[in-house]
Design a protein that fits this description.
- The protein starts with a helix and ends with a strand.
- A hairpin with a 5-residue loop joins strand 8 and strand 9.
- About 5% of the residues have low confidence.
- By secondary structure, it is mainly β.
- It has one domain: Immunoglobulins (Immunoglobulin-like).
């Protein structure tokens, strides 16, 4: 009985430690563009670091706005590696900027949310 318990315990422990340990850290979870002129180039950067022990893949990036374009250094982030996510906002639509970017990964947690804010002035 004790032998069966020990075997079960070791099996569960092995499975637990064999699981993927991956984690991402962002330099910031929000950026403020401030007040932008109509047509002005608006770009910000988020830095993403893999602080885990396994590779992390960024599967996709989504936004709640058609005015946002992404540029990502690489979708594969090795342990200890830092990559840059560039976010470009189209300022040809005057309005308040209250937008979110959702980052889908194979890390734990697998979904990260970033936010943008600011204001675009009307066309002069």
């Amino acid at each position: 009985m004790k032998t069966n318990f020990l075997i079960l315990f070791l099996s569960i422990t092995s499975i637990f430690y064999a699981q993927k340990i991956s984690k991402l850290e962002f330099d910031s979870n929000s950026k403020d563009y401030g007040t932008l002129k109509y047509g002005e180039h608006a770009q910000c950067e988020f830095y993403i670091t893999n602080t885990g022990k396994e590779n992390v893949v960024i599967k996709s990036l989504k936004s709640n706005s058609r005015n946002i374009e992404f540029k990502l250094d690489d979708s594969l982030i090795k342990p200890g590696q830092k990559i840059k996510l560039v976010v470009i906002y189209n300022t040809e639509n005057p309005d308040s900027i209250r937008k979110t970017i959702t980052v889908f990964t194979d890390a734990k947690p697998s979904v990260y949310t970033l936010s943008l804010k600011g204001r675009v002035l009307p066309k002069p």
